[in-house]
Amino acid sequence: MGGVVRIQSGQKEPIEVIIVDSNAVRLIALTDIKLQIRRISDGFFFDWSDDTFKASPVTKLQVLSEINAANAPGEYKLDKVGHVDGFDMTTITNKVADDVYRLTVIQDPVASADNVPQIGEIKEGDFIDNLDDKISTLTKRVSLEMSFSYDLAIDTLIGNVWIEKDNLVLTTVVSVSATLFDDTGTALFTMVDAAPDAQGIFKLTRTPTGFVKNKSFYVVASVTLADASVVKGAKGLFTVG
């Protein structure tokens, strides 16, 4: 244990320590390694008997449990009812938002443990509560996707337009407008549809197209979603001839 840990509001923070003697030998089977927690905002100590911060707690110290003497000698952790495998912020009866907690591990009574007291700090809430939303917003990619084909025999342009969000096709779409341009930037025609299929795909067709040889074409489309927001995109098509 040591240093500062930031956690989101209502999370559980594991508390583990390694206890050694003056020769750096790990000490096993100890039942006197104890934890106290002080809240910085008011200086109150955590009362382990009722999960409340108080000026004069009844039970200020909590014995830490040995993890495994054979496989993890000298390692101890907080593990009690209400705080299994860590300090659970949701159990605090008199929470203060965005607070800081000072943790101190001692041996009581003082004996052979050489590396105590050990001190750490938990900072709960504040800006870190917003990280999930920010990360989620950054990673959510909304894109307009299109595919087009041209049937030369019947001079018909056939297109599909849809919206993807997090790699899933959105079905909450209302309408699409797609304008075809030639390589000079001249708008040739606009296709519209307000009846997407059950999968959220708009079907567009245009006959005749007015395509001529040795020309490149591209489409600029916009899709209106159910929340009235609009997603835009563009796609190059092909050269005829």
Short description:
By secondary structure, the chain is mainly β. The chain is about 5% helix and about 50% strand. It has one helix and 20 strands.
What does this protein look like?
The chain has 241 residues and is mainly beta. The chain has two domains: 132 residues, Immunoglobulin-like (Sandwich), CATH 2.60.40; 101 residues, Macroglobulin (MG2) domain (Immunoglobulin-like). It contains one helix and 20 strands. The chain has a five-stranded mixed β-sheet, with no helix packed on it. Strands 13, 14, 15 and 18 form a four-stranded antiparallel β-sheet that branches. Strands 17-16-19-20 form a four-stranded antiparallel β-sheet, with no helix packed on it. The longest helix has 9 residues. The mean pLDDT is 91.
Helix content: under 10%
CATH hierarchy class name of the largest domain: Mainly Beta
Regions with pLDDT < 50 over 5+ consecutive residues? none
Number of extended strands? 20
CATH architecture title of the largest domain: Sandwich
In N-to-C order, the SSE pattern is: EEEEEEEEEEEEHEEEEEEEE
User: What is the tally of helical segments?
Assistant: 1
CATH fold field value of the largest domain? Immunoglobulin-like
Beta-strand content bin: over 45%
First-residue to last-residue Cα separation: 72 Å
Question: So what's the overall shape?
Answer: rod-shaped
Q: Strand order, biggest sheet?
A: 1-12-11-4-7
Indicate the topology.
Layout: E1 3-7, E2 12-13, E3 16-18, E4 33-39, E5 45-47, E6 52-54, E7 62-63, E8 65-68, E9 72-77, E10 87-88, E11 100-107, E12 118-124, H1 131-139, E13 142-151, E14 156-165, E15 168-169, E16 173-182, E17 187-193, E18 202-206, E19 215-225, E20 230-240
Parallel strand pairs: 1-12
Antiparallel strand pairs: 2-10, 3-9, 4-7, 4-11, 5-6, 8-9, 11-12, 13-14, 14-15, 14-18, 16-17, 16-19, 19-20
